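Customer escalation, tier 2.

The customer says the design service returned an amino acid string that "doesn't look like it belongs to this structure." They asked us to rerun it and document both sides in this ticket. The original structure tokens are below, unchanged.
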């Protein structure tokens, strides 16, 4: 099978949609961020899925950006980089949650629960050093990146503007939900973001199909006899 730009674009579209779908699903099966959860298979499975979601998100985001690289300009570049770095940060953290944190339970249970509870707004009892800054850094990259990218998508008019609007709304809802809702309910704010990724993945797929069909149509039209029938 030859690898073409068309193949890569379709792969990126599927990756974005799958990333959004997984992001929604894991919110309903994520176990509590407590020591007892770390030794369960559910914990490992959820965070392997989360790791895969982040990797797929990076791939999907790359395709979304490259499809409209000229139209989104500097704003789209900054937004894509910020959102992309969030996925990289999340992938690294999810990997540690799945494979490293469970190993700490026996010898350092408090460190383990403080680590996995970083994004759960639990006050850490151990000194986590620079890791304590991860929630703030992640929030800035997630909210700021999604907002800028959503605005750039709307202005570019290449992919669905509805997907861009939903991306902005999902980013705006997140800090509000974090301030007003307990962590267990705060997870529901991830659903609009998952839907936005699915929408943009679908838009990338359909937009690519329309673009790919255009040259074929032009070629067929050029073969028609321009002389009017008598």
């Amino acid at each position: 099978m030859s690898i073409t730009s068309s193949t890569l674009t379709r792969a990126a579209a599927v990756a974005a949609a799958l990333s959004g779908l997984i992001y929604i699903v894991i919110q309903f099966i994520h176990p509590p961020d407590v020591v007892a959860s770390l030794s369960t298979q559910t914990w490992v499975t959820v965070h392997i899925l989360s790791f895969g979601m982040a990797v797929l998100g990076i791939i999907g985001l790359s395709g979304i950006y490259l499809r409209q690289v000229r139209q989104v300009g500097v704003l789209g570049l900054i937004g894509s980089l910020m959102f992309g770095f969030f996925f990289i940060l999340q992938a690294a953290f999810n990997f540690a949650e799945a494979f490293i944190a469970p190993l700490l339970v026996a010898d350092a249970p408090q460190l383990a629960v403080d680590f996995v509870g970083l994004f759960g707004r639990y006050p850490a009892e151990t000194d986590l050093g620079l890791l304590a800054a991860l929630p703030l850094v992640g929030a800035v990259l997630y909210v700021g990146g999604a907002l800028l990218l959503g605005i750039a998508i709307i202005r570019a008019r290449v992919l669905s503007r509805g997907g861009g609007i939903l991306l902005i709304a999902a980013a705006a809802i997140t800090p509000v939900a974090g301030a007003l809702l307990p962590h267990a309910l705060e997870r529901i704010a991830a659903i609009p973001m998952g839907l936005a990724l699915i929408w943009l993945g679908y838009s990338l797929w359909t937009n690519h199909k329309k673009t790919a069909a255009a040259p074929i149509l032009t070629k067929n039209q050029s073969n028609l006899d321009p002389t009017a029938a008598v």
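Tier 2 assessment: The sequence is consistent with the input. Residues 67 and 115 are 38 Å apart (CA to CA). The longest helix spans residues 190-222. Sent an explanation to the customer and offered a walkthrough call.
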